[in-house]
Amino acid sequence: MTIEEEIFKTYKVNEKELLKYGFIKNKTYKYSTKIMDNFEVEITIINDKVIGKIFDLDAEAEYTNFRIKNITGKFALTIKEKYINILKDIRTKCFEKNYFLFNQSNRITNKIIEKYKIKPEFLWQKFPGFGVFRNQKSSKWFAIIMNIDKSKIIQNSEGKVEILNLKLDDPKYLSQKGIYPAYHMNKKSWVTIILDNTLKDEDILNLLDISYEYSKIKDEWIIPANPKYFDVITYIESLKIFSWKQPKNINLNDTIYIYLGAPYSALMYKCKVVELDLYKDSKEKIMNVELLEKYNPQQYTFSKLKEYGLNSIRSARRIPSKLSQKLNNPGK
Questions:
Q1: What string of DSSP letters covers 163-188?
Q2: What mean pLDDT, rounded, does the chain reach?
């Protein structure tokens, strides 16, 4: 990697600022300045790529000694230091910081920042280009962008790429072009997308929404149902997934406990929310719920639920923490 590539590798040019700085625009942007009286630095910018040269005006030739690897000469080191200072000044005044190397990576990142107000965290000194996106409420990761060699994803290929890991928790996504088994993550629940424009930004953002939903803190709710007016038991037990009126503030994958009123007066079913906002044109929102477990009517009667802090069940409500502990650890 050249000096210029290293300094500008995660930056994009602001063309208006180049002109203010003193660059002259023709087909490219060019800028020149003198250092140490008899040396001239010439900077050319083409499509965000920075190309720099130093000329020895006395010798009327390009000076390249400052580019020698592991140089020790004091004069060449001084030239190099002054040249790097010029590049860094141009970067500060004429460039904007990108988080990642490639355009699609930065487009996706900007959308995440815009929608979720979450910026990437760079957690590893050894891997400074690895950026993690974390749900601020739950602290769970929902995306990570990494730069790796393409051969780690596709055999017999090479070259640096940036990838996006998302938690989708469904193998069906692997049938889509551009989606691969997760690199360096749990392959049962995560996938890898190469950010090379194979998948459109819109498609990636849709998948990212799914991953973000998994990172949310999952609530537990209890919902009452009246078996006097509706055969709730037959309806629920004859369907693996069934529709139900959607309470406010409920999220995908939240746990739903269904409480049946008299003559049962007991918590009867444990379910999971698998789909939200069905039939949007109707007055009431509808969700799809998956049955996970059925309880014996004698196991969680209303009197028993009161012992764990649940004193009334008039509408959908979050369950008390004491009851949650009992339901999730019934043997204790």
A1: EEEEE---GGGGGSTTEEEPSSS-TT
A2: 92
What whole-number distance in Å separates Cα of residue 234 and Cα of residue 48? Answer: 65
* Domain boundary assignment for the chain: 3-97, 103-215, 220-328
Longest Cα separation, the chain: 102
| Distance (Å, whole) CA 304 – CA 312 | 12
pLDDT at position 23 is 96
CA 106 to chain centre: 12
Ranges of beta strands (E only) in 28-111 are 29-35, 39-46, 49-56, 61-63, 95-97
Give the tens place of pLDDT for each residue, 178-193. Answer: 999 999 898 888 999 9
Helix axes 103-116, 201-215, angle to 10 degrees: 50
- Distance in Å from the first CA to the final CA of the chain: 60
CATH fold match for the domains 103-215 and 220-328: no
- Closest by Cα among 266, 286, 283 to 274: 286
What's the Rg (C-alpha) of the chain?
30
Is 103-215 a CATH 3.10.450.50 domain?
A: no
Q: Give the per-residue pLDDT at 219.
A: 86
How far is residue 191 from each of residues 123, 153, 156, 180, measured CA to CA in Å? 21, 11, 20, 6
pLDDT digits (tens, 9 = 90+) for 24-55: 999 899 999 999 989 999 999 998 899 999 99
Q: Is the model's pTM score more than 0.70?
A: no
**Which phi and psi (to 5°) does residue 317 adopt?**
-150, 155
To which CATH superfamily is domain 220-328 assigned? Answer: ph1033 like domains (3.10.590.10)
Span 141-178, pLDDT tens digits: 999 999 999 999 998 888 999 999 999 988 889 999 99
